[in-house]
Amino acid sequence: MDESTEFSPENDYAVSKVAMEYMARTWASRLPISVVRPFNYTGVGQTDKFLIPKIVSHFKQQKTGIELGNTDVVRDFSDVRFVASAYRELVEKAEPGEAYNICSGEGHSLQQIIDAMNEMAGYKISVSVNPDFVRKNEVKKLVGSNEKLLKLCPSLNRIPITDTLKWMYLNPA
Fold this sequence. Notes:
The protein contains six helices and nine strands. The chain is of the alpha/beta class and about 170 residues long. It has a single domain, classed as Rossmann fold (3-Layer(aba) Sandwich), CATH 3.40.50.720. Helix 2 packs parallel to helix 4 (about 110-120), helix 2 packs across helix 6 (about 160-170) and helix 4 crosses helix 6 (about 160-170). The longest helix has 14 residues, at about 10-25.
């Protein structure tokens, strides 16, 4: 999905994002507004109410089981340090009126995240699907293109998801 992909919001959250973008663009003739579209990001300090911190927290606590929703969904996860660097560069370099995806450009299923944590922790956690966590209108795959971002900001270094997971797992916070 690149910046020119036509909007097709599948849930209320997505609709709210589209609405905010349209609202911001109403000011574009008077203010130098650029639109930044961050995809999923994570890192140390994010509450375990979010999915990846929840998974990492279970491994840090050496729990043997975890309840999740759909584990076959694929998302584009970025390290928060990469996202912060991208924002910093975009403040200086973004063209007014343009949109920029902040994303890794790679998709990972939740099962791949769990498998990486299994390997990192040295044991397998038992995953059970809780129907209350399964979304009815779940988008199965959501991956962005970071081509435009990296063309404008070539010095940005993406951080592999396995490095992010290790940083989160080994950090005492």
